[in-house]
Predict the structure.
Amino acid sequence: MSNKKILENPFWAPFVVPTAIVLVGSLIVFGITTLLSTDRNHRDLVRELHNKTFGNRWVAAFELAKYISSQKIPKEDFPFLIENLEKLYSEGGDDLRTKKFVASALSALKDKRTAPFFIRSLNKETNGELLLTLIVGAGELPLDAPIDEEKVASFLDNEDEGLRQAALLTLARRDKISFFQEKIIPLLDDSSAFVRYAAAIVLFEKEIPESYEKIREITKLKVETSPFDAGQIEALKINVITSFRKAVKNEVAKDIVSSWMEEESSLKIKGELLNLESTYHL
């Protein structure tokens, strides 16, 4: 099972604004959208997917996922795409690469009519990379779409770090942190710093006291003594500031900002803190 860190991929780098996770289709679409080009439209690509052989079918699936992510598909074509993509996925068998891109294409539609597909697939699949794509896809659904949040939460203690992160961020986007806080609080001691700090930020937004120590830890992060690069540290700190705006009446937040201002060396972060203080009279 894959243990790839989501935050090492630039697409996820800001777990950054956890309440507005950027789940544009799938991790696997980001960064390679310019490698292939095509004059075919989505209907052409669906037909090609039906006609391709096992060995190279994934290329058409990738092109379709890329096309849907970057083009404005007419709403009237959504039923055609959903029906065909779900059929192609169900016929995918052991062709995990094709199934992953087909799931990404369904995710890119951001249509709640795909919710039954994601619920069904999350409860059926066992491959780590495929599950990661499906959790991301479930998180991309409109907030009024029903998903199996209990199933998503079951991945919070999965051995795969990527699945833990994806589950946490999907629950955060759907504002279910308080509901699942008993499962999320243990993540503050996760073996992965990526997971620990993501958990701290989403818990702090709900003013859950167990998160305070880790939030203070984030404000003191330095490249020399952490697993993060400078850009990731900056993104983490901006995300903490965003969470402060949601918990602005919290006295702990005021105390943290006060000491943070004295220790912070980044001019950008200091500027954000000054803006926070002046806007909310901290």
